[in-house]
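Revision sheet: C-alpha cells.
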Amino acid sequence: QVQLVESGGGLVQPGGSLRLSCAASGSVFSIDAMGWYRQAPGKQRELVAYITSGGSINYADSVKGRFTISRDNAKNTVYLQMNSLKPEDTAVYYCNADARTILTGLISTWGQGTQVTVSS
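Predicted:
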C-alpha cells in the first residue's frame, strides 16, 4: 500500500555532490520517519540519516558535516544532499519509510535502491 520511488544516484568525482530524492505514495495516512541507508560491496547495510515527522534528525558519524537530510511533508518526500563525496561513499543507497495507512499500523517500506559511485 506504500511505495517508495528513489532518484538522483549516479557517478560523481571525489569532492562532488549529488542530491537523492525519495517520494512515498499510496494510501499513506502518516509517516513517522523516513531515512536513507546504504550498502557497499561486501559490507553490512548501515544507516546514513533519518528524519522523523517531528523533525528529529540523526546522521551517521561518517557523513556528519557533509550530508544533509530534509523533508517535504506535503509531498511525503525526503531528500539527501550529499556534498564533498568520497570514494568510500560508494554504495547502493536505499530509502526507508515507517508509515501508516488508514487500515494498518506501522509498516516499514523500502525503496529499490539507487547506485552512488564516487570515482575519479
